[in-house]
Amino acid sequence: AQSVSQHNHHVILSEAASLELGCNYSYGGTVNLFWYVQYPGQHLQLLLKYFSGDPLVKGIKGFEAEFIKSKFSFNLRKPSVQWSDTAEYFCAVNPSGGYNKLIFGAGTRLAVHP
Amino acid sequence: EAGVVQSPRYKIIEKKQPVAFWCNPISGHNTLYWYRQNLGQGPELLIRYENEEAVDDSQLPKDRFSAERLKGVDSTLKIQPAELGDSAVYLCASSPGTFNTGELFFGEGSRLTVL
Question: How far apart are CA A79 and CA A82, in angstroms?
Answer without folding.
Answer: 10
